[in-house]
């Protein structure tokens, strides 16, 4: 009787102005919802590129609040996480919270002009700030021996990349008296930045430095060898400060909280750029899935979405979450899905290798079930899939470390597409999956929208599947783990865990 009366009044309300309120009120009171139960097809059908791109435009605007970056703690990042939180709160479907903490932020930037012309440059972490103007002097060989360096007092050293640490080269240059140092790439293209790998070296002091392309360097070398003086100005700045920042965590109000389905993406970018692919693409995809899931009746299993902060500083937000999560709550997380870079311009379709068949790095037991769900999904769309390794380069790692079955999708970062990959997915062999990886040009034009939409639909498919049933995923008690692997790393080592960073210490 009471049910009927309430339903009736809810129905009359639903036809009027307050339909959303009425629906959430009855579901909240334990009455059957007017909404339909979620199905994979229905949730997938609500995902479209127009909505994905709408959020992308917002994220790009937010990056403009802080000089083109959404690095953690910047205005662009704060705007991003408030945007996500507000949209989720509006649905009334989720308990949404900020998990706030403080983490040290460090940023180095370099500007270079040569003979009055601006030259594109990347930078090195640990390099000192300072302003230097001096003639360029050449360093012999690859600059890995002290004997490669002439006396460099009052000079800026020009050194080729390769065969030893950047840090060693810069220290040798400082030891030889140079007031600045420029390293040039030994392969084509713009270098994505690097690290001096340790704060100090016995070989000499670090000096303000820049990191340029082979092509630019060749021009300078030619002039110098012809006896012309070439003058370089390096303007290097360094910021070191503690910043307060937040993960956004949203859990469906309904559903079994003893079987929580988790999906995550990182909300921050690198300081160098707006991070639309890395990881606007993953952040936006799970946001759209979350917003559309809210149109259905409460799920059978609770679904929790997470937007991790400071991934680019070494999986900081996800590590904080898993570390702070009490053992009993960790056990309730049935599985974790990670989406970091899913719209790379020269995309591959990579599924995390849960069973370890392709990479020899299996995920925790149950990860193979997630892998096979995604492989079947792409098979059914006649899309071939490659394998991504659980190599510690994104936010799945803290979950893997505590034994939570994990999986996810990615479309490639700085790695180079093979001939086979180009055959499978189109695009260009011999070119990086994302040529704008960790750079300023990771903007909206950098997003491959068809791949992004397909991956977002695959995410919808997986969330709807597991919201209804986690059949096949083991639910035995996992042995407790006290310390995560990432927690044992130094600040500097952590930074180089992020987003498939490769080969950047030499
Ligand atoms: Zn990333």
UniProtKB/TrEMBL annotation:
Gene3D superfamilies on file: 3.50.30.30, Zn peptidases
Matches recorded under SUPFAM superfamilies: PA domain, Zn-dependent exopeptidases
Signal peptide residues on this chain, from the entry's feature table: 1-22
Highest taxon above the source species: Eukaryota
GO biological process terms on file: proteolysis
UniProt organism field: Ephemerocybe angulata
Keyword DNA-binding carried by entry: no
Residue ranges occupied by any Peptidase M28 domain in the UniProt entry: 247-461
Keywords annotated in UniProt: Aminopeptidase, Hydrolase, Metal-binding, Protease, Signal, Zinc
Co-factor(s): Zn(2+)
Pfam families to which the protein is assigned, alphabetical: PA, Peptidase_M28
Protein's name according to its UniProt entry: Peptide hydrolase
């Amino acid at each position: 009787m009471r049910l009927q009366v309430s339903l009736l009044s809810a129905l009359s309300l639903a036809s009027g102005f307050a339909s959303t309120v009425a629906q959430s009120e009855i579901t909240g009171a334990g009455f059957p919802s007017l909404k339909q139960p979620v199905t994979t097809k229905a949730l997938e059908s609500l995902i479209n590129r127009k909505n994905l791109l709408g959020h992308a435009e917002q994220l790009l605007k937010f990056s403009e609040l802080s000089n083109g970056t959404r690095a953690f703690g910047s205005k662009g990042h704060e705007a991003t996480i408030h945007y996500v939180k507000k949209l989720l709160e509006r649905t009334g479907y989720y308990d949404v919270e900020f998990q706030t903490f403080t983490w040290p932020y460090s940023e180095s930037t370099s500007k270079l002009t040569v003979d009055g012309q601006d030259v594109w440059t990347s930078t090195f972490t640990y390099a000192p700030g300072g302003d230097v103007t001096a003639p360029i002097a050449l360093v012999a060989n690859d600059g890995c021996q002290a004997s490669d360096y002439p006396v460099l007092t009052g000079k800026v050293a020009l050194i080729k990349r390769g065969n030893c640490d950047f840090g060693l080269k810069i220290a040798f240059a400082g030891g030889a008296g140079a007031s600045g140092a420029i390293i040039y790439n030994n392969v084509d293209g713009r270098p994505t930045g690097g690290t001096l790998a340790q704060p100090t070296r016995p070989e000499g002091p670090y000096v303000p430095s820049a990191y340029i392309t082979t092509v630019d360097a060749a021009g300078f070398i030619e002039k110098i060898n012809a006896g012309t003086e070439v003058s370089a100005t390096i303007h290097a700045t360094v910021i070191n400060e503690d910043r307060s920042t937040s993960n956004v965590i949203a859990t469906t109000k309904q559903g079994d909280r003893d079987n929580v389905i988790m999906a995550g993406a990182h909300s921050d970018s690198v300081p160098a750029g707006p991070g639309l692919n890395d990881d606007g693409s993953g952040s936006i995809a799970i946001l759209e899935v979350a917003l559309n899931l809210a149109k259905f009746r409460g799920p059978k299993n609770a679904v929790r979405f997470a937007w991790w902060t400071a991934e680019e500083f070494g999986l900081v937000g996800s590590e904080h979450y898993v570390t702070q999560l009490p053992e009993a709550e960790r056990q309730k997380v049935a599985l974790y899905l990670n989406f970091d870079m899913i719209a790379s311009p020269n995309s591959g379709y990579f599924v995390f290798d849960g069973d370890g068949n392709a990479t020899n790095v299996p995920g925790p037991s149950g990860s193979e079930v997630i892998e096979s769900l995604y492989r079947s999904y792409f098979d059914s769309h006649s899309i071939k899939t490659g394998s991504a390794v659980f190599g510690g380069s994104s936010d799945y790692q803290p979950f893997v470390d505590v034994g939570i079955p994990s999986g996810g999708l990615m479309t490639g970062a700085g790695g180079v597409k093979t001939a086979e990959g180009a055959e499978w997915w189109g695009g260009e062999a011999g070119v990086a999956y994302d040529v704008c990886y960790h750079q300023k040009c990771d903007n909206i034009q950098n997003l491959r929208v068809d791949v992004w939409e397909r991956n977002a639909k695959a995410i919808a498919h997986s969330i709807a599947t597991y919201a209804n049933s986690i059949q096949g995923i083991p639910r035995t008690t996992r042995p407790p783990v006290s310390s995560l692997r990432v927690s044992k790393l130094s600040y500097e080592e952590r930074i180089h865990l992020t987003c498939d960073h490769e080969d950047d210490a030499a």
